[in-house]
């Protein structure tokens, strides 16, 4: 699956700790509200502002993140690894609650502000992958993680009705291609 290495200061400075599984409360590991940079190896992770995977979130995909941003700096209280298969993602968006009205299948990052479906979605079904749903076209504002096989019949339950403007599937780096490149003579 991979791991996440957290650092107490920006640019991977100060003390560090490695996690391989979810941690619902970073107080249990003496790391609550003190993370400023991270390294992610393998599957993406989601950092949450509050314990038990609640509050504002930050998606951390594979790579080096030398600063977690002003909104999350020293405010991370739980970490969750994404374990679903992220290949061939697919989500169906519905215009109305309970999967009614016009529907649209999405398979890639899509900025809805550039088309007819901005701020018109009220429910979804995730067929494959994990999706980041965002309130604004630039990926900011309220964010929600939609997981594989999740069926959310009414966005009012998450106070997100008719607010979806941008969505994208989470990705894991394809290491098989890297292996081929590394073993070439």
From TrEMBL:
<feature type="domain" description="Beta/gamma crystallin 'Greek key'">
    <location>
        <begin position="43"/>
        <end position="83"/>
    </location>
</feature>
<dbReference type="InterPro" id="IPR001064">
    <property type="entry name" value="Beta/gamma_crystallin"/>
</dbReference>
<dbReference type="GO" id="GO:0002088">
    <property type="term" value="P:lens development in camera-type eye"/>
</dbReference>
<dbReference type="InterPro" id="IPR011024">
    <property type="entry name" value="G_crystallin-like"/>
</dbReference>
<dbReference type="GO" id="GO:0007601">
    <property type="term" value="P:visual perception"/>
</dbReference>
<keyword id="KW-0677">Repeat</keyword>
<comment type="similarity">
    <text>Belongs to the beta/gamma-crystallin family.</text>
</comment>
<protein>
    <recommendedName>
        <fullName>Beta/gamma crystallin 'Greek key' domain-containing protein</fullName>
    </recommendedName>
</protein>
<dbReference type="GO" id="GO:0005212">
    <property type="term" value="F:structural constituent of eye lens"/>
</dbReference>
<dbReference type="InterPro" id="IPR050252">
    <property type="entry name" value="Beta/Gamma-Crystallin"/>
</dbReference>
<feature type="domain" description="Beta/gamma crystallin 'Greek key'">
    <location>
        <begin position="2"/>
        <end position="42"/>
    </location>
</feature>
<dbReference type="Pfam" id="PF00030">
    <property type="entry name" value="Crystall"/>
</dbReference>
């Amino acid at each position: 699956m991979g791991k996440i290495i957290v650092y107490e200061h920006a640019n991977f400075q100060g003390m560090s700790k490695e996690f391989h599984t979810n941690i619902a409360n970073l107080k249990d590991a003496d790391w609550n509200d003190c993370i400023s940079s991270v390294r992610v190896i393998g599957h993406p992770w989601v950092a949450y502002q509050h314990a038990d995977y609640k509050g504002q979130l930050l998606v951390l995909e594979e790579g080096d993140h030398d600063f977690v941003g002003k909104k999350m700096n020293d405010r991370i209280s739980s970490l969750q690894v994404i374990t679903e298969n992220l290949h061939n993602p697919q989500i169906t968006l519905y215009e109305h609650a309970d999967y009614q009205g016009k529907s649209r299948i999405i398979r890639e990052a899509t900025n809805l502000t550039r088309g007819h479906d901005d701020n018109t979605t009220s429910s979804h079904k995730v067929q494959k992958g994990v999706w980041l749903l965002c309130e604004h076209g630039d990926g900011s504002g309220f964010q929600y993680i939609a997981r594989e096989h999740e069926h959310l019949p009414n966005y009012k339950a998450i106070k997100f009705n008719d607010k979806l403007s941008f969505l994208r599937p989470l990705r894991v780096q394809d290491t098989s291609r890297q292996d081929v490149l590394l073993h070439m003579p």
